[in-house]
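Data card: per-record layout.
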Amino acid sequence: MPAAYAPRHIGVALVTASAILWSSAGYFTRAVPLDIAALLFWRGLFGALASLAFILALEGRNTWRSFRAMGWIGLGFCLLSSLGMACFVASLRLTSVAHVSIIYATVPFVGAGLAWLVMRERASVAVLVASFFAVAGVALTVAGGSAQGSLIGDVLALAMTILVAAFVVMRRRFPDVPLVPAACLSALVPALISAPLMSSWPTDGREVAMLVAFGVSNMGLALVCFTIGAKFIPAAQTALIGALETPLAPLWVWLAFGEAPGMAALAGGGMVLLAVIGSMVWEGRASTAKGC
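The structure for this 292-residue chain is written out next.
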């Protein structure tokens, strides 16, 4: 029992850590006054270097072999993750952090819909009910707080949500594909694409240090924690834990820059969080009952 018990808790801890690290994106995009392409470049570059350092420490001489083992499926993971991250950073600059985080909190429910379309995997009643309230919360946030956000930014956040959900579903469909090398490439691809589009550069040591911290923590460590931790827990639980980013992302920005969420964002975020927590409690009781 302890041997099976420990990996599950390790998975929960790692995925929770990834959610906390990802929640800092809004803070970094506000703290470093560079254009979106520059942010994507430096974040991706330092994130890829951090991921590569982890792979080298883990695989040693087999590093190249681990990249080759990804195959076409791994490249598909890389593409989805790269596009999702690009939409994520762009949306943070074009709309409020509260809008982005609340829209992103619907990933578990979008993923449930995609899983049914791709694998005919039926969602539980708890997930379906939670989905209804989560979507209602997002609609309230976007409609009631339109003065605080922007339609383009909200659409990019929605696109990012769909891409991340597709990433989770692909992982469930192909669980044996090595994902840490794919995470490294998914950090590097946006950097390569953004490089020719950059129009600004860091001007002092503080900005360079912030960019290093942004890439290493928010891209490199977050992706590594997510891809390793997700192996030990169900994909649905992985996505639900990721919703912890919802209250944390606007919190860091509010504490650092005074960008307080509006009433619509607070109400919508509360609905999303209640939907996520209610779904997790319901599913936990159902699993316990089945175990008994």
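Known properties of this structure: The mean pLDDT is 78. The chain has 14 helices and no strands.

See the next section for split statistics.
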